[in-house]
Specification:
2 domains; Rossmann fold; Four Helix Bundle (Hemerythrin (Met), subunit A); 4-stranded antiparallel β-sheet; about 45% helix; 14 strands; alpha/beta
Amino acid sequence: MHAWPASEVPALPGQGRDLRIHDTATGGLVTLDPGPVARIYVCGITPYDATHLGHAATYNAFDLVQRVWLDTKRQVHYVQNVTDVDDPLLERAERDSVDWVALAEKETALFREDMTALRMLPPRHYIGAVEAIPGIVPLVERLREAGAAYELEGDIYFSVESDPHFGQVSHLDAAAMRLLSAERGGDPNRPGKKNPLDPMLWMAARPGEPSWDGGSLGRGRPGWHIECVAIALDHLGMGFDVQGGGSDLAFPHHEMGASHAQVLTGEFPMAKAYVHAGMVALHGEKMSKSKGNLVFVSQLRRDGVDPAAIRLALLAHHYRADWEWTDDVLRDAVARLDRWRAAVSRPDGPPAEALVEEIRDALADDLDAPTALAAVDRWAAAQEEHGGTDTAAPGVVSRAVDALMGVAL
């Protein structure tokens, strides 16, 4: 599966900062010090509907991570999956009387268009669940051989008790885990499971549903968590720098994935930091496909909204914060974009070197984009009020905003 084209990232003078970021597993800030190549895995979409602003906010956060790392002159090895076979996708295809493969391909193509328009840097490897099946099957077989998996009516489950570190990503109690498992794709009430929290690794073929040859597992399809584990281990290995996604993935998805990987390899932890973006709400409730309260990036673009304004609307909120999309949020972003473009269009302005360092400092401090925006706002206001004599300054500001925040002025 191919990703989307990369926009050029301008090189800036000086030296970027090492990233300090909030790690869900430890509950505090950690300073990441990757080697020459920083490694990041971000969980991708289940393509049964278009990219909404909750998606965009998540991928914007991890785009900032990449940009901070690139500014330190590191390379970035970024991997993202596409869950292109799963119950929600099959249910939507049946509801709309369309082929599930065609639906997945259509929505993945639209996602690529949205990411390109928003200038999100693409992953080096963009892998679908279906194409990962040949690598998933051997992992499930290994877990079963190690006694960490068991069969129930043809389905294969992972035993969470096989991992002594289970629970150390989300730090939830058993009751909270059971509740979230039921809400987020698990089946804690299924009779016969060794532990209600045990997640499915391999679902035996169901009538009328797609299935693949699973070797000794029989025909079926993979569970959600093992999909990401297989892709991450194949392309990044254990101990990669950041496992990222929305805050709703901390449990069960990232907790279960970590346990799968740790039992498979005997190493701990799977990732050095588990980083989670906040949720975006509309009309008082989290945007979700199940509720149908979505604002789509593609629709905003069709309505003539500049993608740079959409990106500024996302950047106006700290990535870990839960926030609500309103008409005022978009209106403020459009006005900010107009002010910034007017400021950098003048032939000269106030010196900008200190501004570049302010942006670097803010983003390296747990991706504090609102503080970075405020710094550019002050420079633009000084430009409008007093002007300046530095002919290089507008270009410096334009390149810095592009390189570090992905906004083209």
